[in-house]
Amino acid sequence: MPSTVSAHSWTASGVIFAFFLTSSLNVSNQLLEVSTVRLIERAICIRDFDGMSFEDTDESICKTGSVQNSLAFTIGWLKAFDAMPG
């Protein structure tokens, strides 16, 4: 007759493993999302201010309303496309 203690410990360790796996995937996704947003913001900033190179771009210049509006619009579409199945 199988012991219920071993089945319970397998279930508890499986839940703990699933929790840590999900948590680590969420953290890594958040870290990637921050860098993606910064890259998109930098690209929009360079597009809006002609004559700037990628290295010369100052962060404070990219915080203007027009750049942030374009960034919000682009991120909104990116989230919409990410939510589509397939």
Keywords, separated by commas or semicolons:
74% helix, 86 residues, single chain, 2 helices, mainly alpha
Radius of gyration: 22 Å
Strand content: under 5%
Average residue-wise pLDDT: 85
What is the count of distinct domains? 1
What's the end-to-end separation, in Å? 46 Å
Global morphology:
elongated
Task: Point out poorly predicted stretches.
Answer: none
Number of helical stretches of at least 4 residues: 2
Order of helices and strands: HH
**Helices and strands: which structural class?**
mainly alpha
Work out the helicity level. Answer: over 70%
Task: Count the E strands.
Answer: 0
- Major β-sheet annotation: none
Please tell me about this protein's structure.
The protein has one domain. It is built from two helices and no strands. The chain is mostly helical and 86 residues long. 74% of the residues lie in helices and 0% in strands. Helix 1 runs antiparallel to helix 2. The chain is elongated. The N and C termini lie far apart (46 Å). The longest helix has 45 residues.
Structural topology:
Blueprint: H1 4-48, H2 65-83
Helix pairs in contact: 1-2
